[in-house]
Design goal:
This protein has 662 residues and is of the alpha/beta class. 36% of the residues lie in helices and 19% in strands. The termini are far apart.
Amino acid sequence: MRAYVYVICIMGKWKAYSTIAPAVDRLFWLHESAGQRMGRAGEAATEGWLWLQPLPLWDACRAAEQWNLERGRRGGGRSDREDVPCALAACVAAACREAVGARRSVRAKVQQGDSLRGGAERWERAALAGELEGDGAAGDSAAAPEGLGAAARRAAALLKGRALLRSEAQALLEGAAVPGADSGWSDVLQLAALLGLVRLHGSVAASIGNRRGLLRRSRRELRCLRCGSGEPQMRRTACASCGRECAYCSSCIQMGRSRECELLIEGHRSKEALISARQLHSIEERLSKWKLSPAQSEATAKALQFVESPSNGMKPTATAFAIAPIRSFLLWAVTGAGKTEMIFPLMESILLRGGKALIATPRRDVVIELDPRIRKAFPTASIVTLYGGSEQRWERGDITLATTHQLLRFQQSFDLVVIDELDAFPYINDETLHYAADKCCAPSAVRLLLSATPPLAMQRDARRGALPHARIPVRYHRYPLPVPKLLRTPMVAKLLQSRRLPVSLLSELRSSVMRGAQLFVFVQRIAQAEPMADLLRSQLRLAEVAATSSQDDERSNKVKQFREGKIRVLVTTTILERGVTIPRSDVYILDADGRLFDEASLVQMAGRAGRSADDPAGRVFFCSREHSRSQARAVSHIKAMNRMARKQGYLLPEPASKEVSR
């Protein structure tokens, strides 16, 4: 995409801007009555100069920034009017040199003195009686300044709290039937930017700021302004849009191509303060309606106090679009503790005080499972669920459920951001998703971190008091976590090769089937899932055996059938280590000593068993040749949580059925 750069003089001071619709800017600044009807609050400009050549988007933005930096250092933006076109040409040349090195065509213009006038057009104030000028789409839109102003405000309201590429913003505006969105969308967005309601810039750009020695800089370090990735993630290709080699970001390409000449629209969210929590009922009264267990109530009360407390001196940043400091609270709870139910009072607090809440989780399956539970808990709230292929892509709600990748499309949008399963793939090792989770937080927002197995660094911060937190060592039904048993078995590859299961494993599997349990059977490799399912069908003489993985197009349907009891045994990978709850289930982890199964994965997979109050003593087996360090740590982790729960008086007497599982 290409844009223009221009300078205007207001009360004797010159300032530069970039624009995607110069006719709109001309009317806004230079036409007294039209500018006011479009929404201009201050003085009109007396004159201006437009650089006539459209530039690649980043070049136009950089040229405007260069003008404002240089003129600011030389005396508050004042300039001799005869010097203006030459100075504008110099800034354009500097921006182009910074982007692609010395460009003879532009540099030659800088050396031609009077011939520079051919590169810029002078703008003069329109007559106050005045005739509305313009041509093409811009002229048509400008013919009704009030209508354009109304369209710009409506567009800004729809874009509030979002960060969208040009095509995404256009789809949003067209879907909402904003006037001019189909043909004059650039006019609408440009006016919204002039009114300070949105920010327009390239989605990939070099760092900006007050840098000296800029004209001598030969190479730029680029950064994606949507996902935060730096130069190592940039790839360069020839670009028909800007007519040169153009960089794009490889990190977030699955969400649409972010590149130097692609427009990124960031909607400014107004800074309305939330209603004070003092106007709400007491925490005890509000918690009582949710019928939480003692451990849940204690931890949730602590989290509520944090959410509703003042921000401890942390103030919103001065720039409306910058990432502000974020207050975080960790809910460190065992698998099956009822973390979802615990966040309901926190979300209620935000909604009652006029805020917006987000629940983000790395995996699509978990988002889909959460949807009906959130709708049941908050029947009067508007709820939007976002994942790849979601039909609610452009809707706005009081509560948003989303995969963590979807957060790339938001900017300072939510007052409460809940990151569920923060240690899960792909969130844990993806810096772009961490960046997205930061930038979607509104100023003074609270981020709630949920995990049964938080990263070691986070655990250390919690233990030394650097990270406010609450620990929940017991499940909602108040029975101990099932402790895994070691079952020595050959490697899965050998089992598949021999087409036989060892007697010990087959005996336990049959025992699980006989007791009416459904079975999770975890394998390390996707390629092993279907062959193992076929082997289990044969050995157990059971037809209701299936396999699924991240590459299975039928995964959602199979998980649904598993929940409904139509599938008795499901062979899967770590894709289902979280977020799937089966009332009566046993867990078998094959090749549990493999390198792909670390402590956190083993704890999460073991956590699929014993989640129901009707079957709290589900069985867990680590099946492997050796007892690995990860297995030992996982067992130690589970036992430590049981000891903590017992010590704090949270556990009920163990059910008699537990003896059967042993």
